[in-house]
Each structure stands twice: as C-alpha cells, then as structure tokens.
C-alpha cells in the first residue's frame, strides 16, 4: 500500500524537495536516520519548509547534536526488562512489536531505533514479551507502540490482540499510530477487524497539523470509529509546524470535528539533531493560554513533558491559580480572588 514512498535523497532532489547543493549532507543524514515520505504526505507538501514538509524532509541540521540532546531522551532502554517491553509506571507497559513507521518524523524521540529494516520482534521474542505481561499482574494496560503497530500485517496484529485478550489482568489496550492519516489505505476491514477485542481498545492518533486530515484520512478514522474504537489525539509542539495559536486551533479543531479527542500536546523530547524544532516551555504555555476560552473545551489537550532521563510524564500547565496569593486568572488574563 502507500503507493510510492520516497526514501532516497536522490528521489527527494528529483521531487524538488531538497536542492542538489545539499545532497551530500542529506545523504549523511539519511545514512543515520530513516527517511520515508508516503504519497499522502508528499501531495500535501506545498513548499519544503511548510508544516508538512518540515516534519518529513531530512535536513543537514540533523547532523548537529546539541549539548542537551541524548540518544535515548526518555530513558526507555534502562526500563526494558525484556526486548519489546518498556515498564516505567506500575499499572501499564509499552509493547513495541516493530520499529517500522509509515513515515519518519525528523523530530522522532526514538529516531536512533526506528527504521524500515529492523526491529520486528521475532516469534520467540514476542512470546517472551507476552510472557512477561502474563506474569506481571499489576499490568492493566498494554500500550502498543514502536515504530507504528498499524504497520503490522492484520494477521500479526490479530495474534497480538488475541494474546492480550487472553490475559485476565489486562483490561485496556492502547495503540499509538500515525498510519490512519499517513497511509489511510492500510486501514482495511481486515486491519480494523484485527483490533476487535472485548477489552477496552483505544487508538491514539499522532497528528501535528490540520492539513494532515485529508479526505482519505478522515474516512480511515471513520472506519475505526465504526468498529467502536475511541480515538484520542497526540501531537508534538514543533517550531514551524504548529507553533502559533492559529495552527494549534486548526489542529485541535480538526481533531474534534473528526471525533478525535486531543489527549497530549508533547513538549519535544531532546533527541539528537532535533533542535531546530524546539519551542521553549514558556512559549508553549503562552500558546495554550491563547487557546483557553477561544476553542471548545473538547479541543484542549494536556501539555506534557516527558522528563529527560526516564523520570516520567508531567503536565506543564498553563495554570491559572496562584497558590501564594490565592488569586485565579480568567481566560482573558484578569485576576480574581478565589471565592
Ligand atoms: C508515555 C509512556 C506511557 C504512557 O503514559 P500515559 O501518561 O499513560 O499516556 C507508559 N509507559 C511509558 C514507558 C511511557 O513512556
Ligand atoms: S511515527 Fe512516531 S515512532 Fe515513527 S518516526 Fe514518527 S514519532 Fe517516531
């Protein structure tokens, strides 16, 4: 599926996405970090530095590692008891069955690991990971991530979902995916059928700009919703992509109008070579403050930081209560005494 996907820097030059003059540098970037631009996204790119192009076109700056950046920004490697499992919080664990994605985000927090030719847990490793989940009764929720779990074949996804179905203490299954908008043709009846389970199945859709909601993508979301799968949205706050009140408003409105509840707006994780996307936390808080009162409460995500080093996720505000003075701020910025 996904018709034609651009993968080599040569193809990017031919498509007019990068100038010939930086080809050597981009070859170096591509040798280090996976690159893929599916035709859905290609057709959305108007200029290489627009909100869609920036997300997927490799850039020479990716070779620059800032002092604050780390290869494993959120410390997943240290929290992995067996391959494919990451366990940081008592009640839930990640299961990463593969490391393939429909496209490769230039800001990806797992960019040192994801790529087209690796990371599929083989039969034995998958059984070991499922065995770990079976023997850890505190795990109520299994979060399928990767890579992108919807890049699995329907048969393999069905096998995993059925195995999780059979673990009594697992009550909730969550899938994080960019596929529905990046490669909507993959969301077939067979694939949505593979997600069928009596447990609570949630899908968290990764999208960063309203333009990603194409007609085909919207239809793919509907196919999952018709199967009774509730959809949440997760986005990353990115310089040049969605770092304005208008862009965030457009994104979250597009989600709500497609029955996708914005869940998290992530502060960018400091993965190598991603500094060009960095938006300071104070700016992020001000952007969200600009949305308060302006958009429906349904469109409001939690602005979240995954504390570098593996210490966990925490909300970054904005907050409206000044506990020192006991004053509370309204959406237009005026202060009031707490009743
Ligand atoms: C992000 C993450 C989760 C999920 O966190 P929620 O706040 O429940 O969305 C779980 N485990 C790990 C290791 C994570 O990085
Ligand atoms: S879809 Fe997720 S895992 Fe894949 S490249 Fe993008 S951020 Fe990374």
Automatic annotation (TrEMBL):
CDD domains linked: Radical_SAM (cd01335)
InterPro entries, per the entry: Aldolase_TIM, LAM_C_dom, Lys_aminomutase-rel, Lys_aminomutase/Glu_NH3_mut, rSAM, rSAM_sf
Pfam name, any one: Radical_SAM
Cofactor section: [4Fe-4S] cluster; pyridoxal 5'-phosphate
All residue ranges annotated as the Radical SAM core domain in the record: 87-308
Family per record: Belongs to the radical SAM superfamily. KamA family.
Protein name per its UniProtKB record: Lysine-2,3-aminomutase-like protein
Protein species of origin: Acetobacter musti
């Amino acid at each position: 599926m996904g018709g034609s996907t651009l993968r080599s820097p040569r193809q990017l030059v031919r498509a007019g996405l990068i100038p010939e003059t930086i080809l050597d540098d981009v070859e170096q970037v591509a040798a280090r970090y996976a690159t893929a631009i599916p035709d859905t996204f290609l057709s959305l790119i108007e200029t290489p530095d627009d909100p869609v192009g920036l997300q997927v076109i490799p850039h020479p700056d990716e070779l620059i590692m800032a002092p604050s950046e780390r290869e494993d920004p959120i410390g997943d490697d240290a929290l992995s008891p067996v391959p494919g499992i990451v366990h940081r919080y008592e009640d839930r664990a990640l299961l990463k069955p593969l490391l393939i994605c429909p496209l490769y985000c230039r800001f990806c927090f797992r960019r040192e690991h994801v790529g087209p030719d690796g990371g599929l847990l083989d039969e034995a490793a998958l059984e070991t990971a499922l065995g770990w989940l079976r023997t850890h009764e505190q795990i109520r929720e299994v979060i399928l991530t990767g890579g992108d779990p919807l890049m699995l074949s329907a048969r393999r996804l069905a096998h995993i979902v059925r195995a999780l179905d059979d673990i009594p203490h697992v009550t909730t299954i969550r899938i994080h995916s960019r596929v529905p908008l990046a490669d909507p043709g993959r969301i077939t009846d067979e694939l949505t059928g593979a997600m069928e389970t009596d447990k609570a199945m949630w899908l968290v859709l990764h999208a960063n700009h309203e333009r990603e909601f194409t007609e085909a993508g919207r239809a793919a979301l509907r196919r999952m919703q018709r199967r009774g799968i509730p959809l949440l949205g997760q986005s990353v706050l990115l310089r040049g992509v969605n770092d304005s009140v208008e862009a965030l408003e457009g994104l979250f409105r597009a989600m709500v109008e497609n029955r996708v509840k914005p869940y998290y707006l992530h502060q960018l994780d400091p993965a190598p070579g991603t500094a060009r996307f960095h938006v300071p936390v104070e700016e992020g808080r001000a952007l969200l403050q600009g949305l308060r009162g302006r958009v429906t409460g349904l469109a409001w995500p939690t602005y979240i930081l995954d504390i570098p080093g593996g210490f966990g996720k925490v909300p970054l505000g904005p907050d409206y209560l000044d506990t020192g003075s006991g004053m509370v701020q309204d959406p237009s910025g005026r202060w009031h005494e707490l009743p």
